[in-house]
Amino acid sequence: MSATSSPAAAPDSASAAPHDGRGTSPAAARGRGALLGVAALWAATRALMLWMLVHDFHSSNLVRVDISGTYHNWYDVLITWSMPHDDITWQYPPAAAAIFLSPDLLPFLTYFQAFVALTVLCDGVILAGLLRAARRGDGSMAGALLWLLALPLLMATPFARYDVQVTLLAVGSLLCLRHRPRLGGVIAGIGAMVKVWPLLTLLGTPRGKSTREAVIAAALSCAALLAVFAVLFRDSLGFLGNQGGRGVQVESVGGSALMLAMRTKVWPGKITFQYGAFEYVGPYVPAVARASLALTVVGFMLLLLWRVRARRWTAATPLDAALCAVMVFTVTSRVISPQYMIWLLGLAAVCLTSRHTTQRPVAWLLAAAAVLTSLVFPVWYGDVLQNTWFGTLLLCARNGLLLCATVWSGVRLWRATVGAGAEEAGPARDPEPAGAPRE
């Protein structure tokens, strides 16, 4: 066959498949059956999560308080067209206000009920997007299954935080970047104005026109949202002043090192509640905080080096790079809250929608880390705060798993795109055939 010749057209599977006499092929029936099964499993697992949220299952009252207390208090300030900058726990970009005001869309429910209902809706939209991505020529159902089955491992936490909404923006950006980089950039920009980190979804866009379009679109959407919220709300940038004072949170990687030192009597510090979280106070805490920031800078430089050195892009590379980048920033942060796992599971699920992903084993490590995260909080959070041997080792195991997953993610991404095998393979073409479903 010559380079310009075309392969023989494959027979139309829809017309070639036998029908059951009612105009429905067995393949179509199986497809609908699978979707019904996924929908039923989603409904069952989410109903269980909701039950845990409202029935004090393993101290889920600690989870609910964010909606009924913190978020509702912010709502009471936001409806006066002012940001709650006097509350030191308000540490979010201005567009986050839209999330906390969104329960007004369901005025027939209480604030708590409306917030949870909208969060569950966003969860369902994420699943629908992952299912649609699975229909691509190189698609896989593994991503949808990971999100479907791994999110409940976090128990009630996902429905009592606004991170499902933020994850929806990040997932939407990645799913759009492949064929509509401008739209993907706009969504990433919106996500950045809600919780900053979705901007990292642009790190792996292919060099050239796609990156320019996505970055420009993201910058314009960020600027537009900043302008809108500056007009609508007083002190829309007040959150910046509440970020600088954050210390080392108990559940962070640096925090687990301090906890182990405290348990073995090597370090004389203690745990206290400040800036809306349990943090360490005592000697060397500022040094640990500076070391975390330095590691974040080093991680960012390594990600930039990867982007410069990468030779081979596949359709999965932007997805894999986004997961790796967010993991780097998560494990090097002074703060790791339980809801951060929602981000990682969402990005891992997007990676698994492609058969060409390098992150498959990393995704399953993250699922295991989700189990340990729920054991850390809320199940045995008392042991963690009391610095018992059990709580200390449980937290160190979770953070060790996250650290291993991050290193493994970076190594696999580097080998696939920068290593000798990638150089020999040369640039990869998008394996999706013409006519495949487009986002």
What does this structure look like?
This protein is mostly helical and 439 residues long. The chain has helices at 13-16, 26-54, 61-78, 96-101, 111-133, 142-150, 163-177, 181-195, 209-232, 253-263, 285-309, 317-331, 340-352, 360-379, 381-385, 389-417, 420-425, and strands at 270-274, 277-281. It has a two-stranded antiparallel sheet. Strand 1 (270-274) and strand 2 form a beta hairpin. The chain is globular and about 65 Å long. 43% of the residues are buried.
List the defining traits of the structure above.
439 residues, mainly alpha, two-stranded antiparallel ribbon, 17 helices, globular
Strand order of the largest sheet: 1-2
Query: Major beta sheet, specifics?
Result: 2 strands, antiparallel
Write the element-wise H/E pattern from the N-terminal end onward: HHHHHHHHHHEEHHHHHHH
Rough shape?
globular
Distance between the termini: 32 Å
